[in-house]
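Task 17 of the worksheet. Students: predict the tertiary structure of the chain below and write it out as structure tokens. Keep your answer in the requested format; marks are given for formatting as well as content.
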Amino acid sequence: MKYFAMIGEREVECVVESVDGEMFVTVDGRRYQTDLRHLARASSYSLLIDGKSFEFTVDEHEDGLELSGGAGTFVVRVEDARTHAARSKTASARGASGPKMVKAVMPGIVREICVAPGDAVTKGQALLILEAMKMQNEIRADRDGVVASVFVSAEQTVDKGDKLVEVE
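Model answer:
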């Protein structure tokens, strides 16, 4: 089943599937073997991703679910494909204008810069690679535009909310 998760301003496409009793999650084209277990403590979970264990808590938040763990606290909103398509259609009808600041949704290390100021980008194109919780995440453009500024460099450590790239 296909889902879309909004982590801050970053949208992530997820496909969840069960194959021969094993659970797999494909995130932005990368497939991971997973196992999720509820722990004895209220709202606490253990998530195994390709053999690596992560513990976190989940609480309701006005904008979605608040996940707290070793890498920090993040608000995540999850939609099924039908809800996402309806919301996207409404948003595109309104249009997007003006500069868009892309910020870090979690602390991490910038591993690669994929664009430079003046580059034309298309929606979904990789802007940079951010490593967080030992996973490399492509930070993608959420619309077509031109890169106005790049605020980080490769191997730079960033905190949640730091400016990464501005797209006009």
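Marker's comment: The domain at 2-81 is CATH 3.30.700.30 (Glycoprotein, Type 4 Pilin). The radius of gyration is 17 Å.
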